[in-house]
Write a structure and sequence with these properties.
Helix 2 (17-38) packs antiparallel against helix 12. The protein is globular and about 75 Å long. The protein has one domain: Growth Hormone, Chain: A. The protein is built from 19 helices and no strands. The longest helix is centred in the last third of the chain and has 43 residues, at 284-326. It is mainly α. It is a multi-pass membrane protein. It is found in: Membrane. This is MFS transporter. The chain crosses the membrane at residues 12-36, 48-68, 80-97, 103-121, 141-162, 182-200, 242-260, 303-323, 335-355, 361-380, 392-413, 425-445. InterPro entries: MFS (IPR011701), MFS_trans_sf (IPR036259).
Length: 457
């Protein structure tokens, strides 16, 4: 099918739901470890508590991708029903997670939240490839990244902004501050509204041959698992090479999401989370000392979250530049991705000796890597995939995102960072080295149509 070229605003409308998805991911990534620490988790326990997130992605995304490939509704289309279901579930989970009374409840809500976000997110990747001619693929994924950058920056700053408006940023032992609760409630609302905007402003192409589509759909009912396994076994060589890059990229970012708060509050701000067992809260002086230490930790956590939001802002600027460039010209996706990842790695390494005032500059560099991770691999992949299998292939590609996170959560981060010593900041150094390795792995990509869109001119 020859697809018509879409305007910027048509691409913006079809990608706008990612604003809500990124609100969910940014609040989860920036503040879930803070919630865990507030509820009593030690630094060494945090990666394992995060394992729910990649495990649900490993299971959910290939399934949702496969099902959306086989779905067609005359009014709601192929991908949009999954956007909506995921949005409702994600919004409910976002609202309730900061109200968790215990650590195990918070971990359970993280599981529900990540599964729900994945239900919405996977079809968005496939929608770009469904709707856009190949000449606009890089442009489309970059516009998506622009919206993601906006969502990351705003959501990461929400608790800080809310506390500046006078909402309390302190709370009793084991209770999440009100500023965080309100931030998550706002995130829930934005998630639902932005998804609804895309659902009602975007149409989808029907299958080219409806009779053939229905025959394939009926034939696939009894071969669900077999089809997914077959697609895993027959994945293109370019996809496998991109998988190596994704492994090191997402190991780095999972390390940041799970351990940046404990590492930076302790190493950069020198305000680690107080351990309740070290205080006798029945004694007024000890209780006051705990409250002072806990308030300092919560305030430093806000500043860490705000600094992390800068990577969303710089990824937005990075994407904006690429939007203007790719609207008129082709780019070398391989070189763009390699350079961006290496810059991000340098940003992580700088954290070892940066001051609190300059921490944001580390995240500026990390934002270049993030902006590229969200666009270049998908643009390269979509050039080597059967359009009929776009959903399931994008879902399977997610395996290269979640497997490194599972390995990191099961002890990979603690083991590798432990080789450098006991200091919490070592986890950020590991993230830096991992991103640099990911950048260099781009040298493996040799497929010309993946590196830059090829025309017949």
């Amino acid at each position: 099918m020859k697809k018509q070229k879409l305007s910027f605003w048509e691409i913006w409308n079809m990608s706008f739901g990612f604003l809500g998805i990124q609100f969910g991911f940014a609040l989860q990534g920036g503040f879930m470890s803070r919630i865990f620490q507030t509820l009593g988790a030690g630094k060494e326990e945090i990666p394992l508590l995060w394992i729910a997130a990649p495990l649900t992605g490993l299971i959910v995304q290939p399934i949702i991708g496969y099902l959306s490939d086989k779905t067609w509704h005359p009014r709601w289309g192929r991908r949009r029903p999954y956007f909506l279901i995921g949005a409702v579930l994600s919004s409910l989970a976002l609202f309730f997670v900061p109200h968790s009374p215990t650590l195990w409840v918070a971990a359970g809500f993280l599981w529900i939240l990540d599964a729900s976000i994945n239900i919405s997110m996977e079809p968005f990747r496939a929608l770009v490839a469904d709707k856009l001619d190949e000449s606009q693929r890089s442009y489309g994924f970059v516009v998506q990244t622009l919206i993601i950058g906006i969502g990351t920056w705003v959501a990461s700053n929400l608790p800080w902004l809310i506390s500046q408006l006078g909402v309390s940023n302190s709370a009793e032992s084991g209770v999440v501050p009100m500023s965080v609760k309100i931030a998550f409630a706002i995130g829930a609302l934005v998630f639902l509204v932005s998804i609804l905007y895309t659902v009602f402003t975007t149409t989808e192409y029907p299958p080219e041959d409806m009779e053939e589509f229905e025959r394939e759909k009926k034939a696939s009912k009894n071969t669900f698992i077999k089809d997914i396994v077959a697609n895993i076994g027959s994945m293109p060589l370019t996809m496998k090479k991109l998988g190596v890059i994704q492994f090191f990229s997402w190991f780095a970012f999972f390390t940041m999401w799970s351990l940046a708060n404990p590492a930076l509050t302790e190493h950069v701000f020198e305000n680690p989370a107080p351990i309740e067992a070290n205080y006798d809260l029945t004694m007024p002086a000890q209780a006051e000392a705990f409250d002072i230490a806990n308030t300092a930790f919560q305030e430093s956590s806000n500043l860490v979250g705000s600094a992390m939001g800068v990577y969303g802002l710089s990824s937005m600027a990075f994407a904006l530049i690429l939007v203007f460039y790719t609207s008129k010209r082709r780019i070398n996706r391989k070189l763009v991705h390699m350079g961006s990842l290496i810059l991000g790695g340098i940003g992580f390494l700088m954290m070892n000796f940066i001051s609190p005032e300059n921490l944001k500059y580390c995240f500026v560099l990390i934002g270049f890597a993030w902006g590229s991770i969200l666009s270049m691999p998908y643009a390269m992949l979509s050039s080597s995939v059967d359009p009929k299998k776009m959903g399931v292939i994008m879902g399977i590609f997610n395996m290269f995102i979640v497997i490194p996170q599972i390995i990191a959560a099961l002890g990979g981060i603690n083991f590798v960072s432990g080789l450098l010593g006991d200091a919490p900041i070592n986890a950020m150094l590991v993230a830096g080295f991992s991103l640099i390795i990911a950048g260099l792995c781009n040298l493996l990509i040799t497929n010309k149509s993946a590196i830059t869109y090829q025309t017949n001119e």
